[in-house]
Amino acid sequence: MAGLYVGATAGYSGKNMIALGIGLWLQKNNRKVGYLKPVGAMPVERNGAWGDEDAFFMQEVLGLDQDPALVTPVLVTEEFKAKAFSGQCQDLMSSIRHSYETLSKGKDVTLVAGSGSMYSGKYCNVDGVSVVKDLGIQAIVIDRFEKELKYDYLAVMRERLGDQLLGVVLNDVPKTYMDELKTLLVPFLERIGVKVLGVIPRDPLLGAIKVVDLAHRLGGKVISAHAKADRVVENFLIGTMQVENFLTHFKKHRNSAIIVGGDRSDVQLVALEGDCPCLILTGNLYPNEIILTRSEVLEIPIIIVREDTFSVAKKMETLLSRHKFRDAVKIKQGAEVVAANVDLAYIREKLGI
């Protein structure tokens, strides 16, 4: 049996997307795929059983139905953390090892999903590096572009994991960085023994969020065009400037939610007529009747939130960079993106499956 750990240099780097892309491709190629998430940081209850939210989701998409206690042997609850920080960490790795051996039976490969970064869980010795070494499996490390790539971190992973590092995937890379990546960074990584398995270009759809989910995450509510609350938001634009300046920016960012004060009906109207995906009105100020009517006619939802424009913009920035990979459209898109940009045949060959 083969095992493949899918980890990352930081949280929210695309582990689920890439693990699913690999798993679905292998299933399509008649391989039996298992799944384990050794450490779960998002405990939830489903049908009377506790497990990790990501693990439940991944099992569902991969068509697996295993005991949540086996799939996620270490569940990080508040009680768990209190014990761990007070020095009461038991031998957690033996539970992880038991789960891996049990879930791997009858499988060609078991995907082992990381939580956070490769060093998350170090406080109780269940970090990604320790899990990979203890299970004796191969690992892929994902690095998501955030202002730059973490090449030093990847070099350290090569030193720590040695030949167990199968390779790295560079994710969410903007077009403007591609030349530097191909001419400098990829050759550097290859030279120090780090195989670059793929470079995934930035895809707005994968970071997008539905209006209804956005309202919930912002602590607001949709007050109009409810039937279109499934529209997708890819970006945002702040509408605090004068109308003329706003128009110039808006033309370049058509698929952006507009964050604007509830008293700025001039900007609101321009945004609605320009077919923005939604309006986010701040300060708990409701729009006038003209705006509400146009919103309904044009089928563009309006979200009302209590916070000020700057606070909402900061939240939006975080949400769009960390929104979970959940929608069916995203799953399909993500699987296609991984298949097109990651050397899956190489992975299969190296795993011997």
Automatic annotation (TrEMBL):
Entries under Gene3D superfamilies matching the protein: HprK N-terminal domain-like, P-loop containing nucleotide triphosphate hydrolases
- Organism of origin is Alkalidesulfovibrio alkalitolerans DSM 16529
Every copy of the DRTGG domain together lies at 213-318
InterPro entries per the UniProt record, alphabetical: DRTGG, P-loop_NTPase, Phos_Acetyltrans/Butyryltrans, Ser_kin/Pase_Hpr-like_N_sf
* Summary of subunit composition and partner proteins: Homohexamer.
Record-given protein name = DRTGG domain protein
